[in-house]
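FORM 12-B: Structure-to-Sequence Request
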C-alpha cells in the first residue's frame, strides 16, 4: 500500500525541556490503531475495517481510506448505527462468503461475522443482519451449529483463498498459531486439521497467529496477493508463489506498520510517517517503554525543602532549570545508546500521583549526521493517566491522544529549537546529575554541543527551523561549546529563549529560582567544577547575550570583530 498523511488541525505542543500544552482534536479522524483491526472485502470496491465499536471504509481503486460516504457522513462511523442488527463492538472475525448459505433453502449473498462462540449472518442485498435463518432459528447462533470442524468457542480470522486449491474453493480459519482449511462447496472443514501455521505457510511472518486477513481483489506487482494483519503490523503473501514476501517491489520490508502504509486509514498517519523518517535518518528507533520500569531512573531531588513540597513549590539543589521548579518524582531513561545515536525520554511528574505524569518527551539523535527528532506528549492537559506503558510514536498519536503530531509541535508556542539551539540536549545540573545506565549522553564531555558537531531537524514540518552559533572573541563560553540563537525566538511567539539569550544568563547568575544558594552540594550551573558565583563567568555569558541580541530575522547576520553569528544547522 502507498503512504499518505492524514490532515490534523494545528494545536500547541511542548518540547523535551519546556512544555506547552493544549487539547487537540482530529478534524478528519479515521481509526485509532489501539484495538484489533478486522478487515473485510465487500463487493462494492471497498474494504471495511472494523475496530472496537467503529469502522472505516477503504477504496480499493484509489488505494486510500474514504473521508466520507459521499453524503457528508465522515468516517469512522459506529457499527451500531450503520450495520443494522449486527454485533455492535469487538468483532473477532469477518468474511464475505463466496457462496449462498448452505442447505439451498436461501439463495442470497451473505457475509459472516464472528464474536466469541457465536456468529451472525449479514444479508448483503438487504444491507442488514439476518434476524433468523431459513429454519426460523434466531441469530446470533453458536459456531458449532453451522460450521462443522471449526473451533466452537473462538475464531481469530477468516480468509477466502483467491484461487482454487486442488480444483476446490477453500477458506482458511485461523486461531492462535493454528489454521483449518474449509471446503466452501461442501461447507465443512477438511480432515486432518487444525495444523500449525509454522511449517505450512512458507516464510510466514506471524506464526503465532493473526488478527485478520484479506485477499486483494486486483493483482499487485503482477501477482495475486493476500494481506495478513497482526497488531499494528501487516505482511504480504504471494499467492502464486505460495510464499510470504520479504519486501514489496518498492523496497518496503515485511512485516511493515499498518500506520503510514494504508493511506488515511488511521488518524495518526502523520506522526507515524514522521517517526519512520526519523528512524531512517538516525539509524535507531524509538521503542515502547514503561516510564515506571526499573530500567529508568528517578531524577534526584536532593534536599527538597520542605520535604513534602508539591510541584511547583519548594527549593532543591538542582531544580529543573528551564521550568525553574523542583519536580520531585520525574523520571529519565536512555532508551537507546549506540556509538552513533541515542534516544532519551523524560517524564515530568508535575505533582501528579503515583503512575501519572504531566509530560513525556523524547529526543532521537544521530551523532554522526546530526539528524534530530523531537516527540512531545502532554498527559496532564489531555486528561490522561499514564497506564505504565508508552507506545512508540511510530504507532501514532494513540487513542485517546498521547503524542502530538509534527505540525502541532512546529506550530506550538514553544517549538523545540527555541531552546535547543546549540544541540539536541540542553545539559543542565538537573539531568546531568544522573549516573549509571541512564546517564545523560554527553554529561561528562566538556566539548558537548561544541562547534563541528552536526545538527539538523528531520521532517518537512521542521524544515524552517534554523539555529545559529554566537561567537565573541576570547569568550570562555565559546571555549567549550556553542552558544546558540534561533529563528524561532524573539519573534513575539517565544521571546527570549535559547542558550545565548536566556540559558547562559541563568547558568551563571547569582541565584536561580527554586534553587538553594550556590554551594558544594548545590553548585552553580556554569562553569563545570565551579561551586559558587563568579563575576567573570557571568560577564562572559552577558557578552554572548549582547551579541545574540543583535540577531534579527531577515537582516544580515552580525559579522564584526566583536560579534559574529553564523548558521550551523544543516537543511
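FORM 12-B RESPONSE
SEQUENCE OUT:
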Amino acid at each position: 500500500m502507498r503512504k499518505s498523511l492524514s490532515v490534523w488541525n494545528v494545536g500547541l505542543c511542548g518540547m523535551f525541556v519546556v512544555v506547552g500544552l493544549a487539547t487537540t482534536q482530529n478534524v478528519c479522524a479515521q481509526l485509532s490503531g489501539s484495538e484489533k483491526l478486522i478487515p473485510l472485502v465487500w463487493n462494492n470496491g471497498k474494504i471495511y475495517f472494523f475496530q472496537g465499536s467503529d469502522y472505516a471504509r477503504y477504496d480499493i481503486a484509489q488505494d486510500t481510506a474514504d473521508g466520507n460516504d459521499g453524503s457528508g457522513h465522515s468516517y469512522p462511523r459506529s457499527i451500531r448505527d450503520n450495520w443494522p442488527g449486527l454485533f455492535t463492538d469487538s468483532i473477532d472475525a469477518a468474511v464475505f462468503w463466496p457462496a449462498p448459505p448452505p442447505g439451498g433453502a436461501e439463495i442470497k449473498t451473505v457475509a459472516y461475522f464472528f464474536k466469541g462462540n457465536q456468529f451472525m449472518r449479514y444479508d448483503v442485498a438487504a444491507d442488514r443482519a439476518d434476524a433468523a435463518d431459513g429454519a426460523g432459528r434466531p441469530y446470533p447462533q453458536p459456531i458449532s451449529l453451522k460450521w462443522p470442524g471449526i473451533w466452537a468457542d473462538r475464531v481469530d480470522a477468516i480468509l477466502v483463498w483467491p484461487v482454487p486449491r486442488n480444483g476446490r474453493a477453500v477458506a482458511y480459519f485461523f486461531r492462535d498459531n493454528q489454521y483449518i482449511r474449509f471446503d466452501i462447496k461442501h461447507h465443512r472443514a477438511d480432515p486432518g486439521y487444525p495444523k500449525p501455521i509454522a511449517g505450512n505457510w512458507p516464510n510466514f511472518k506471524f506464526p503465532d497467529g493473526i488478527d485478520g486477513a484479506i485477499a486483494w481483489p486486483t493483482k499487485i506487482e503482477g501477482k495475486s496477493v493476500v494481506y495478513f494483519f497482526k497488531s499494528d503490523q501487516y505482511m504480504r503473501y504471494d499467492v502464486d508463489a505460495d510464499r510470504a514476501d520479504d519486501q514489496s517491489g518498492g523496497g518496503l520490508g515485511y512485516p511493515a506498520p499498518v500506520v503510514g502504509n494504508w493511506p488515511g486509514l488511521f488518524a495518526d498517519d502523520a506522526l507515524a510517517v514522521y517517526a519512520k523518517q526519523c528512524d531512517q535518518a538516525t539509524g535507531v528507533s524509538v521503542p515502547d517503554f514503561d516510564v515506571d520500569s526499573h530500567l529508568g531512573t528517578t531524577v534526584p531531588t536532593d534536599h527538597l525543602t520542605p520535604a513534602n513540597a508539591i510541584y511547583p513549590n519548594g527549593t532543591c539543589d538542582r531544580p529543573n532549570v528551564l521550568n525553574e521548579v523542583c519536580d520531585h518524582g520525574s523520571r529519565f531513561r536512555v532508551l537507546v545508546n549506540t556509538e552513533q545515536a541515542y534516544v532519551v525520554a523524560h517524564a515530568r511528574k508535575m505533582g501528579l500521583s503515583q503512575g501519572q505524569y504531566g509530560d513525556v518527551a523524547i529526543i532521537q539523535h544521530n551523532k554522526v549526521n546530526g539528524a534530530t527528532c523531537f516527540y512531545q506528549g502532554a498527559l496532564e492537559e489531555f486528561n490522561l493517566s499514564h497506564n505504565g506503558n508508552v507506545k512508540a510514536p511510530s504507532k501514532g498519536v494513540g487513542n485517546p491522544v498521547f503524542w502530538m503530531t509534527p505540525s502541532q509541535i512546529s506550530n506550538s508556542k514553544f517549538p523545540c529549537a527555541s531552546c535547543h539551539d546549540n544541540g539536541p540536549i540542553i545539559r543542565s545540573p538537573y539531568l546531568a546529575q544522573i549516573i549509571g545506565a541512564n546517564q545523560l549522553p554527553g554529561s561528562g564531555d566538556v566539548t558537548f554541543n561544541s562547534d563541528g558537531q552536526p545538527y539538523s531537524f528531520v521532517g518537512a514540518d521542521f524544515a524552517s527551523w534554523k539555529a545559529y552559533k554566537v561567537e565573541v572573541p576570547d569568550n570562555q563560553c565559546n571555549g567549550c561549546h556553542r552558544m546558540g540563537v534561533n529563528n524561532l525566538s524573539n519573534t513575539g511567539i517565544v521571546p527570549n529563549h535559547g542558550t545565548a539569550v536566556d540559558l547562559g544568563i541563568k547558568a551563571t547568575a547569582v541565584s536561580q529560582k527554586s534553587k538553594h544558594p550556590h554551594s558544594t552540594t548545590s553548585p552553580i550551573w556554569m562553569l563545570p567544577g565551579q561551586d559558587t558565583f563568579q563575576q567573570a563567568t557571568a560577564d562572559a555569558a552577558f557578552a554572548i547575550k549582547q551579541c545574540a541580541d543583535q540577531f534579527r530575522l531577515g537582516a544580515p547576520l552580525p559579522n564584526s570583530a566583536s560579534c559574529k553569528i553564523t548558521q550551523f544547522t544543516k537543511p
